[in-house]
Amino acid sequence: MTLIYFMLLFLFLVIIALILGFFVLARQIGILFERIAPMGAMVSDHGPKVGENSPVFALSSLTSEETVTVGAARDKAMLVFFLSPTCPICKKLLPILRSVRDSEKDWMDVVLASDGEEEKHRRFITNAKLSDFPYVLSTELGLGYRVARLPFAVLVDKDGVIRSKGLVNSREQLESLFNAHDLGVDSIQTYLENA
């Protein structure tokens, strides 16, 4: 009889161990899923295509007296980052943009772009401490690149050619624009499909 009790106790402990193992594995799968973001910026087919000349815009900055020229040939490439004061993902990416601006300053400038009421954007610039970025307000700029959702970024090379663009929700997606530029491809997705 004691042997049967011992076997039942042993089976009970095995079942408990399997249940615990299941929950540990389920948790690890959840963590892995969070860590693996979609590869590359989500490219849209709207607006000027990658490899085409960018439309040119001369815009006044809210953060300086200088005119910001977007899309024209210049000394460095330009990342135009479209954002909104009400976009939580845009706000999450601001420290990443600062880091990218500092680490890539030798070959690229970063410009923040939006549209809407100037006073709201001035408050946003003050509250988010964005006065060190060129910040332009222009509905035409967003329409020129066919920006439908935010945050959206366009990388224009120093010759005024669009090198990469897309919806960016993470550092990985933002950096995929630079990788596509370096590899000379439209997007990381195109590179992976052809590899």
The coarse silhouette is elongated
Spell out the helices and strands N to C. Answer: HEEEHEHEHEEHH
What is the name of the CATH class of the largest domain?
Alpha Beta
Task: State the CATH superfamily name of the largest domain.
Answer: Glutaredoxin
Distance between the termini: 66 Å
Give the biggest beta sheet. Answer: 5 strands, mixed
Q: Which CATH architecture of the largest domain?
A: 3-Layer(aba) Sandwich
Specify Rg, calculated over alpha carbons.
Answer: 24 Å
How many strand elements? Answer: 7
What does this structure look like?
With 195 residues, the chain is an alpha/beta fold. It folds into two domains: 36 residues; 138 residues, Glutaredoxin, CATH 3.40.30. Helices cover 45% and strands 18% of the residues. The longest helix is centred in the first third of the chain and has 34 residues. It starts with a helix and ends with a helix. The model has no long low-confidence stretch (mean pLDDT 89).
